[in-house]
Amino acid sequence: MTVERGRIRVEPSGKRVRVYLGGRVVADSSHPLLVWESPRYPTYYFPADDVAQDLLVADGDIVHSPSRGDARTFTVTVGSTQAPGAALRYDESPIDELRDHFRFDWDAMDSWFEEDEEVFVHVRDPYARIDVLASSRHVRVEVDGVTIAESSSPRLLFETGLPVRCYLPKPHVRMDLLQSTDTVTRCPYKGVAEYWSVRTGDRVYRDCAWSYRMPLPESQKIAGLVAFYKVDIYVDGVLQDR
Question: Is the pLDDT of residue 227 over 70?
Answer without folding.
Answer: yes
